[in-house]
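User: For a benchmark we're assembling, each entry needs the component sequences followed by a predicted structure for the full assembly. Here are entry 17's components. Please fill in the structure.
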Amino acid sequence: MTTVLHYVFAPGLLQSEEVLHAFLVGILVAVISGVVGVFVVLRGQSFVGHVLTDIGAAGASGSFLVGVNAWYGFISFGILAGAGVEWLGDRARNRDVATGIILSFAMGLGSLFLYFDTRFTSNASAPMMVLFGSMFVLNPGVIPIVTFTGLAALVVLLLIYRPLLVCSVNPEIAKTRGIPVRLVGILFMILLAIAIEDGSLVVGSLLSTALIIGPPATAIRLTSRIGLASVLSAGIGVVATGLGILLAYDSYLWPPVHRGWPVSFFIAVLVLVFYLLSRLWPERRYAQGAGSARREEVA
Amino acid sequence: MQVEHVLELNDIVVQFGQRTVLDHIDVAIEAGEFVGLIGPNGAGKTTLLRVILGLLSPNHGEVRVDGKSVRKRNRAIGYVPQKIHLDPDTPLRGRDLVGLGLDGHRFGVPLPSRKRRARIDEVLEAVDALRFADAPVGRLSGGEQQRLLIAQALLTDPKILLLDEPLSNLDIRSAHEVVRLVGRLGKERGIAVILVAHDMNPLLGHMDKVLYLAEGHAAMGEVDAVIQSEVLSRLYGYEVEVLRVRGRVLVVGGRDEEADVVDLLGGFHCGDHEDVMNS
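Assistant: Structure for entry 17:
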């Protein structure tokens, strides 16, 4: 029994500061991403989520050039991009076009920065860290600020939960109720940026959307209650991240020995497994809602 | 003794650049009155709606709700939008949507309580939506969603219920159900109802008054008094004719120009009315 436990919880797991940091930041990111993600689904903004990761990646690539931690690059570019998309999109009345324009500009910038990073600085690993994260090599200096912004984002999200819900369902109703729709929209973009960029730091910009999209997609297959879906989504994200870290730590003993498998891989696989499992859940039936029957009748 | 009006629009003028969209509009609506706001597309219905809701301040004139002059949004108005766009998988049940009417503008997450549930159940029952209250909103039919939106608006405790083209996405039967429902709710609860529509026929026999809008001009009164060729011709600024066919009303224009009759009501001809709606 102890050997099995030893195999799952490899010796030294909880003595390692890096692992503890990974658990702390990883789980926080999973909670925020899970709750924010439900609103991303509700608001149909998953495309914007992808955009924020790409733009954050450009910022992070640039941060290596000026010698600051990647997190500052991720978060500054992410928040600017989120606010910019919301601001431009509202004017242009065409979110996708506005988003696309910002996106292509950021990608170009990112490729330039990564080129400089690898050519003219000693950060040969910069592309790997930007794209696939640095869960186990987090700079202890950024842990407090990452934790603080994450917790602040969570608190703000819970505070604006109801007005945000009204805005997401119908902006016109929100306006007539005196809710500042634009302000709420920009606030949500900033929260989304924090969730995605904190996620980019730990699991990489290529995979941070996995935590934004996967757990909510799984949760809404299990319940149609928005509150329960938010809790489930956060929970699924936490389990996937926690198990992912555990498996990544264990993988140091797997072949090739003492190299370890990337934690992002495990998290992505677990998110997919949970989603596939949720597909086995029986499709909800709403016999009491005569909706479908009536629609057929009309058609 | 003057009658107490729940909504008064006094000499409202709205201009967008050179164009006058609303030209000296006067409206007075009493508590519990069911008013159909009728007019062709582009007549200024949406603009007038935005003025009443306090989302647009007029260039001239005054809006009074419940006797008080209103500059910004009106808490006394329950707004029912034309449609909500939600994916079928959206995790939002009917009762969650309705609950937003109660406390959607407040900070924080909604905490379940017996009182909250009772108030939500009460309006759900009033609009006959209890049986689909736990289904995801995105999977319900247009008529069912409309009922939930009405319930949501009722929970804001309004003096006036404002429905923006609620019938335009509904089949004939659902449209009649919605009209009957808001008529009954208005009378039972003493709420004035303003229902915006481009076709007045589903409202005939249910609305107390018609507020007809054309070319930025308005006329309000009993249906038989307003829906007259002379009255509407004055609004349009050119000759139109009101035809009454088998209890239905059709407004046509262009009597003098050539022979072709232009339907001013956007494609709803009385003869093939149902075919158009069902296709």
